[in-house]
Amino acid sequence: MIGALLLSVALFLLAIASHLTTLGAAHRLVDRRTDLSAKMAVSLMVLFSHLLVAALFGFGFWFGTAWGLGSFDTPDAMTWMDYFYFSLINVTTLGLGDIYPTDHLRVIAGIEALTGFALISCSAQLFWKMMTQGETQ
C-alpha cells in the first residue's frame, strides 16, 4: 500500500508540474494574442498536456503492475494501448468500467481521477480567459 501511495504522489507531482508548465506557456500566448490561430494553438497545448498526463499515469499503471502492486481485471494481457486507454478514461473521470484495476493499483486510479479533476478545472479557467478576453466590463 505504501508503494502505491508513493507512486501515486510521484505521478501526481509530475502531472501537476507538466500541466502547469504547459498552461503557463498557454497563458502567456493568450496574453499576447487573441486571434483564432492563437486560440487554436492554446487548445492544442491543453490537449497535449492532458494526453501527457494520461501517458504518465498509464506508465505508472504499467510500472505498478510490474512492481506487483496489482493487476487489471481483463481476460487478455494488457498492452501499452490498454494502459493508456484506461488512464485516459480514468483521468477524465469517465470510468467506463470495461477495464479496472485490482489490489493496490486502485489507489493510483483514485489519485489519478482526483488529479484529472483538478487539471480539467485549471484548463477550464484558461478557456474561460480566452473566451472573455477583450470583452468590456
Keywords, separated by commas or semicolons:
Helix Hairpins, 74% helix, 137 residues, mainly alpha
Element layout with pairings:
Blueprint: H1 2-32, H2 36-66, H3 80-91, H4 105-132
The name CATH uses for the topology of the domain at 1-9 and 55-137 is Helix Hairpins
Task: Please report which band the strand proportion falls in: under 5%, 5-15%, 15-25%, 25-35%, 35-45% or over 45%.
Answer: under 5%
Helix and strand sequence: HHHH
- Please give the largest β-sheet: none
- Can you give the helix content as a percent range? over 70%
Q: What overall geometry do the principal axes of the alpha carbons give?
A: elongated
The overall pLDDT average reads: 91
Uncertain spans, ≥5 residues at pLDDT below 50?
A: none
Annotation field: number of helices: 4
- Please state the oligomeric state of the protein chains shown: single chain
